[in-house]
Amino acid sequence: MLIRPRRNRKSQSVRNMVEETRLSVKDFIFPMFLIDGINQKIEVASMPGIYRYSLDLMLGEIEACMKLGIMAFDIFPAYPDDKKDKYATESFNPETFYLKAIHKIKSTFPEAVVMTDVAMDPYSSDGHDGLVENGKILNDETLEILGKMSLAQAQAGADILGPSDMMDGRVGYIRSVLDQNGFTEVSIMSYTAKYASAFYGPFRDALDSAPKMGDKKTYQMDPANYREALIEAELDTNEGADFLMVKPALAYLDIIRLLKDNSNLPIAAYNVSGEYAMVKAASQKGWLDGERAMLESLLSIKRAGANLILSYFAKEYATLVK
Ligand code: PBG
Question: Which residues of this protein are catalytic (predicted)?
Answer without folding.
Answer: 194, 247
